[in-house]
């Protein structure tokens, strides 16, 4: 792995995104719009939005980043761009880290927008620090990115990449504690939820929202999310094909 090559890949991805205004708008604005829709839905149910608003800050960025990253990476492979890139002195991890770094920068902007709107426009009630909530939201966006990079290795077409979303993300959405607290799940499902990354993403956001902070539980959940990010990058590098299928 070469930092110069990694940064070159990140710069290339950012240049592509700068020309794709629709994708950038979706990445940055869609989570905030979805959060606003949920606030509107529960406007006449006091306390409901405050209960689910925090976890949604983990769920929406992760899902959106997963979809965009998996499709974009697969397009690089099916178009032959990836094969041409690998004729250069570039490791597979350089490619994946470059992508992850580029989308991490997008995740920073995304988290700033969605957290600011949630706290200051929608009056989401949290007891913790806004900056800690933002850090966790960024981690959750990067988590979706790395899971998308990993999942794209198992798809042959863009349609299959989109199909990976319900296969990979929907079970996590159902078991992460958003709909039913994880400690109330049946034993087997609770065990499954313990090995799913989105469970810890939701726990980290919920912990900050309750005021626990990084030093009182939320930090350990955030570290687990970071561990899943690293694992997804390593597995992605191991499964990424150098030649177009």
Summarize this structure as a short list of keywords or feature phrases.
single chain; mainly alpha; 11 helices; antibiotic resistance; ABC_2_transport; ABC2_TM
Structural features, described:
- This protein has 245 residues and is mainly α.
- It has one domain.
- Helices cover 76% and strands 0% of the residues.
- It is built from 11 helices and no strands.
- It has helices at residues 3-19, 21-41, 48-78, 81-85, 92-121, 130-151, 158-168, 170-175, 187-193, 197-209, 218-239.
- It is globular and about 55 Å long.
- The protein starts with a helix and ends in a 6-residue tail after the last helix.
- Residues 18-243 form the ABC transmembrane type-2 domain.
- It is a multi-pass membrane protein.
- The chain crosses the membrane at residues 24-42, 54-74, 95-121, 133-154, 161-180, 222-240.
- It is found in: Cell membrane.
- InterPro entries: ABC-2_transporter_component, ABC2_TM, ABC2_TM_bact-type, ABC_2_transport.
**Compute the gyration radius: what is it?**
18 Å
Mean pLDDT reading: 88
Main sheet attributes: strand count, strand direction, barrel closure: none
Percent of residues in helical segments?
A: over 70%
Task: Assess the beta-strand content as a share of residues.
Answer: under 5%
What pattern of helices and strands is seen along the backbone?
A: HHHHHHHHHHH
What separation lies between the terminal Cα atoms?
24 Å
Domain ABC transmembrane type-2: 18-243
Transmembrane segments: 24-42, 54-74, 95-121, 133-154, 161-180, 222-240
Membrane topology: Multi-pass membrane protein
Organism: Kribbella voronezhensis
């Amino acid at each position: 792995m070469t930092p110069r090559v990694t940064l070159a890949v990140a710069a290339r991805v950012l240049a592509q995104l700068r020309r794709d205004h629709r994708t950038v708008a979706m990445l940055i604005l869609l989570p905030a719009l979805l959060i606003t829709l949920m606030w509107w839905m529960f406007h006449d149910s006091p306390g409901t939005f405050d209960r689910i608003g925090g976890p949604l800050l983990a769920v929406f960025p992760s899902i959106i980043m997963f979809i965009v990253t998996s499709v974009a990476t697969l397009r690089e492979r099916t178009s032959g761009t990836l094969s041409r890139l690998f004729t250069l002195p570039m490791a597979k991890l350089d490619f994946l880290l470059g992508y992850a770094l580029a989308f991490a920068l997008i995740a920073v902007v995304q988290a700033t927008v969605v957290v600011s709107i949630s706290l200051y426009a929608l009056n989401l009630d949290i007891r913790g620090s806004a900056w800690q909530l933002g850090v966790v939201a960024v981690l959750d966006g990067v988590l979706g990115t790395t899971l998308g990079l990993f999942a794209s290795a198992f798809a042959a077409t863009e349609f299959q990449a989109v199909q990976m979303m319900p296969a990979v993300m929907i079970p996590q959405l159902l078991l992460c504690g958003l709909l039913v607290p994880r400690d109330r799940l049946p034993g087997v499902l609770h065990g499954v939820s313990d090995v799913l990354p989105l469970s810890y993403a939701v726990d980290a956001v919920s912990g900050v929202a309750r005021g626990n902070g990084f030093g009182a539980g939320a930090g350990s959940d955030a570290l687990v999310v970071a561990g899943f990010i690293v694992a997804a990058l390593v597995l992605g590098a191991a499964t990424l094909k150098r030649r177009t299928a």
